[in-house]
Amino acid sequence: MKPSKNGQKSATPREPEIVVGLDIGTTKVTAVVGEVDAAGAITILGVGNVPCRGLVKGVVSNIDWTVRSIHEAVEAAQQMAGVEIRTVYAGVAGSHVRSIPSDGVAAVSGGEVQRADVERVLEGARAIPIDADRQILHVLPREFIVDAQDGIRDPVGMSGVRLQTRVNLITAATSCVQNVVRCAERCGLTVADVVLEPLASAEAVLNDDEKELGVVVIDMGGGTTDVLLCVDGAIAHSTVIPAGGNNVTSDIATGLRTPRAEAERLKRNFGCALGRMVADDDEIEVPSVGGHAPRRVARRVLSDIIEPRVEEIFAVVRKRLEDTGLLEQLSAGAVLTGGGVLLEGLPQVAEEILGMPVRVGYPVGVSGLHSLVNAPQFATGVGLVRYGAQSLLSAQQAASARDTSPRTQQPREPDDAPVDGPRGNKFLDWLRAAF
Ligand SMILES: Nc1ncnc2c1ncn2[C@@H]1O[C@H](COP(=O)(O)OP(=O)(O)OP(=O)(O)O)[C@@H](O)[C@H]1O
Ligand SMILES: [Mg+2]
């Protein structure tokens, strides 16, 4: 295995690169190490996955605990992969994240749309007033319009005099983003980019047909349920619901008067989100608190506690989808991912409440140690590697285009660009390739 150090640009763009995704979740931190070849194929070399208690509802609330978990996860991943991890693509989530529609317009110089025109129109689209304590995380183009022709995904090379774009701006609370970066930096890591977690999850679990047809990705983690809509091959909206699998566990602990750890075990081993799937005579043993003897309880009682909470979460998802006005355009239905969707019967409840076909999304598009990440809770980690891989390839392609074409010469983005700096253009590259 090549002992490469990630984060260092290779001398030739053809050398494989190491890309690391760092998913800092409410219940666990996962570091996924991928090797990316010149064609963009990703081989998973190592994974580190450790529990984390430093976050509340997707947001860092205890720096020390989070740092410790990141350190352990990265240590485990680099031991398995046999590489030194220096740079990571980190995920960010939480209900502070907002999706705002915006648009931009620019004159086309020279009668043919150049990459520089696209960059200018995207810069224009991001020039809207946002609160001082917030920052733009992504500029997601939905479509470009050249003169009267709309619905264009990549306008470069088209003839016209006026270029317009419709985008979604993803904004986040600067303090929340900075806390993620700070935690990684305290572990000696450099954050190459901060990525909206459901965007990464979508990248890992969706196929091209679903992106074209219209689909919603629902990542149900421990603390949050992240929702991302993809319509006509572009990201149309994203929203975060501050509830997830941990709420189900809390309900069980309270309802059955059992310790939280036992509630979690009961949920995973015997829980079912759909009461009618449980046989009436099934029984489970429930440990008690305060030294009392364990009790035998009908398994149906457990699902009677779980079902309303799961219904409530998906009713909120449904309402948020209705509010976007895009519900009718989700022809491919919903793809559920995140550890929370491993609950038995949950896909059935989701299908009934959302009123659309549902499947559980596992990370795809990677080889190597794929079996270690072949579960819904690793969608974000794998997606971050795929996002990072695409960013690297786009940067390499842009660099070689600059070398060969004087028309596309652009000032090179410095390698140490701040993580909260403009990244709409980089994202455009990724989006073009991915969607
Ligand atoms: N087999 C299972 N059955 C039911 N629930 C499960 C199972 N495995 C994991 N979960 C639940 O999945 C949740 C954790 O999912 P995940 O690892 O995706 O969350 P996270 O990324 O840490 O959190 P978040 O994305 O909300 O910040 C927990 O609530 C856990 O109880
Ligand atoms: Mg998560």
Structural write-up:
α1 crosses α3, α8 (299-324) runs parallel beside α9 (346-354) and α10 crosses α11 (424-434). It contains eleven helices and 19 strands. It has three domains: 1-97 and 173-207 and 364-435, ATPase, nucleotide binding domain (Nucleotidyltransferase, domain 5); 98-172, Dna Ligase, domain 1 (2-Layer Sandwich); 208-360, ATPase, nucleotide binding domain (Nucleotidyltransferase, domain 5). The longest helix is centred in the C-terminal third of the chain and has 26 residues, at 299-324. The protein has helices spanning 63-81, 115-125, 174-186, 197-205, 208-213, 245-255, 260-270, 299-324, 346-354, 379-404, 424-434, and strands spanning 17-24, 28-36, 42-51, 55-56, 59-60, 87-92, 98-107, 134-146, 149-152, 162-173, 190-196, 215-220, 225-231, 234-241, 283-286, 295-298, 334-337, 358-360, 366-368. Helix content is 35%, strand content 28%. The model is unreliable at 1-5, 7-13 and 406-435 (pLDDT under 50). It is of the alpha/beta class.
Explain the layout of strands and helices.
Elements: E1 17-24, E2 28-36, E3 42-51, E4 55-56, E5 59-60, H1 63-81, E6 87-92, E7 98-107, H2 115-125, E8 134-146, E9 149-152, E10 162-173, H3 174-186, E11 190-196, H4 197-205, H5 208-213, E12 215-220, E13 225-231, E14 234-241, H6 245-255, H7 260-270, E15 283-286, E16 295-298, H8 299-324, E17 334-337, H9 346-354, E18 358-360, E19 366-368, H10 379-404, H11 424-434
Parallel strand pairs: 1-6, 3-19, 6-11, 12-17, 17-18
Antiparallel strand pairs: 1-2, 2-3, 4-5, 7-10, 8-9, 8-10, 12-13, 13-14, 15-16
The structure holds adenosine-5'-triphosphate (ATP) and magnesium ion.
